[in-house]
Specification:
ten-stranded mixed β-sheet
C-alpha cells in the first residue's frame, strides 16, 4: 500500500448557496482546493465527484464532465459516485483507489449538494420524497418523510433496548449546537440550544412522527454546501512541493454495505459499519483507545450514539451516556463532532463525508478554531453512512509525523 496524504482541504459555508448553479459550485469546489496549496488544477491526475440529489433536485447528470470542465482537469480519469449520504466518503475512497492502482499520484475528491432554491428556500415535502428514494421501496409506504420516520423507529428501538432516554440523546444535539457556535462554516451558528429546549415539545420542536420519540432538534439540517480534498502519494506531495511530515495521512480506510431493507437486521449494531471501522483500524495498525478526535454521521441524534459505539468509544447501548458524561466534549476523552456534526454544522449530502475527513484533518493539524481545537490530538476516526445505516465508509487519520 502506498501511503496516502491529505494535501489540501476546502469547503464552503454550509447552509444556503442561493443562485449558484451546479457548474459554478463544482468549479468553486475544485478551484478552492487548488488555491489552498497554490497549485494549478493541471497538477491533478485523477478525480471523483459525489452528489445524491443531482438528478432529482438539480436535473443534472454526468457530474464527472462538470469536474472535467475545470481548466486543467480535462481528459483526466474522473468518475461520479453515489452512495446516498455516504457519497462524499465514497468519493475519497474512489480517489485513494485510483492512486493505489497507479493511475496517478495526485487526486481530487469533490462533493456537493444543492437542496434549496435561489432564494435559499426548500420544499420540505419534495426533499422528503427524493431522499426517500434511498430506502427500500417496501419500507416507504405510509411515510411522508421517509428517513425521519425510519430513524424515529431506530430511536424508539434504541431507547427500548438500552434504557436510554430522549433527554440523553438530546444531550448530543446540545453539545453539537454549542460547538457550531465557533465553527465559521456551520449552518446553525446562532442557535443557543439547551437540554430543556431540546426536550420540550413546543414551537418548532415537535415530534416528526406521531407516537415516535424523534423531535426536530434530533434531526440534521437540509443544507447546501460543497467540500473538496486533494489527496496524494509521497511522490505526489513532492511534485506539489509539500512534505509528508507536514501532512495528515489517511492511515486506514474501508467501506462495507448492508442490505438496504432495515427490517430483518440489527440496525442498532450494524454489521457493515462495525466491519468497515474494524478494517480501517486494522489497516492503520491502531486501537480505538488511540483515537481522541472523531467525526460521526449523526443524521439524527440516535446515530450520534450508535456511531460512538461503532468507533469503539462505548459498548452497544453506551453511546448516549458517553455524551451525557461529557466524554465527547472538546476537552473529553474523545472529542466527537467538534465541527457541530450534521445536526448543527449541516448536512449537504454529497459533501458530508469529505467534510468529516477534512475537519478531522484540521484538528490533527491544529487548524480548528481555538475554542474547538483538541489540545493534544493523536489519531482521528470518521464514520460516514448512507441510507438506513446501510452504506458505511470509515477512515482513520494519522497526524503529521
Amino acid at each position: 500500500m502506498k501511503p496516502i496524504y491529505i494535501a489540501a482541504y476546502h469547503q464552503s459555508a454550509f447552509g444556503k448557496l442561493f443562485d449558484a448553479s451546479v457548474p459554478v459550485i463544482v468549479e468553486r469546489a475544485a478551484s478552492g482546493a487548488c488555491r489552498e496549496i497554490a497549485i494549478d488544477a493541471s497538477a491533478i491526475d485523477v478525480g471523483s465527484i459525489a452528489a445524491a440529489c443531482n438528478f432529482t433536485l438539480n436535473e443534472q447528470g454526468l457530474l464527472a464532465g462538470l469536474l472535467a470542465s475545470v481548466p486543467g482537469l480535462e481528459s483526466k480519469p474522473i468518475e461520479a459516485v453515489e452512495n446516498a449520504c455516504a457519497s462524499g466518503g465514497q468519493a475519497v475512497l474512489s480517489v485513494i483507489h485510483k492512486l493505489q492502482l497507479g493511475l496517478g499520484d495526485v487526486g481530487i475528491a469533490v462533493g456537493y449538494e444543492k437542496m434549496r432554491d435561489a432564494a435559499g428556500k426548500m420544499d420540505g415535502k419534495l426533499v422528503g420524497k427524493v431522499l426517500g428514494y434511498f430506502s427500500h421501496p417496501d419500507e416507504r409506504e405510509g411515510k411522508v418523510f421517509v428517513f425521519p420516520h425510519l430513524f424515529a423507529e431506530v430511536m424508539a428501538s434504541y431507547l427500548a433496548a438500552y434504557g436510554a432516554t430522549p433527554r440523553d440523546l438530546a444531550a448530543i444535539a446540545v453539545t453539537e449546537y454549542q460547538n457550531a457556535r465557533f465553527n465559521p462554516f456551520a449552518q446553525m451558528r446562532d442557535v443557543a440550544l439547551t437540554l430543556d429546549i431540546a426536550e420540550t415539545l413546543e414551537g418548532i420542536n415537535r415530534c416528526i412522527v406521531d407516537g415516535l420519540p424523534l423531535k426536530t432538534y434530533d434531526c440534521s439540517q437540509i443544507t447546501d454546501g460543497y467540500a473538496s480534498m486533494i489527496l496524494a502519494t509521497a511522490d505526489g506531495l513532492a511534485r506539489l512541493g509539500l512534505r509528508p511530515s507536514a501532512c495528515v495521512r489517511v492511515a486506514g480506510w474501508a467501506q462495507a454495505t448492508d442490505p438496504l431493507k432495515k427490517f430483518g437486521r440489527d440496525v442498532l449494531r450494524p454489521a457493515g459499519a462495525y466491519r468497515a471501522m474494524r478494517c480501517a483500524y486494522d489497516m492503520a495498525g491502531i486501537a480505538p483507545a488511540e483515537v481522541n478526535v472523531a467525526e460521526l454521521h449523526d443524521c439524527f441524534t440516535v446515530m450520534g450514539a450508535i456511531g460512538t459505539e461503532v468507533i469503539g468509544k462505548a459498548n452497544p447501548g453506551g453511546g448516549a451516556q458517553y455524551w451525557v458524561d461529557g466524554r465527547a466534549d472538546v476537552t473529553g476523552e474523545c472529542a466527537i463532532n467538534t465541527s457541530g456534526g450534521l445536526i448543527a454544522k449541516g448536512h449537504p449530502i454529497g459533501a458530508t463525508g469529505i467534510a468529516m475527513i477534512g475537519w478531522a484533518s484540521w484538528q490533527l493539524l491544529g487548524k480548528a478554531p481555538k475554542e474547538l481545537q483538541v489540545a493534544k490530538p493523536r489519531h482521528a476516526a470518521t464514520f460516514n453512512i448512507g441510507g438506513p445505516i446501510c452504506a458505511s465508509v470509515c477512515t482513520v487519520l494519522a497526524p503529521p509525523a
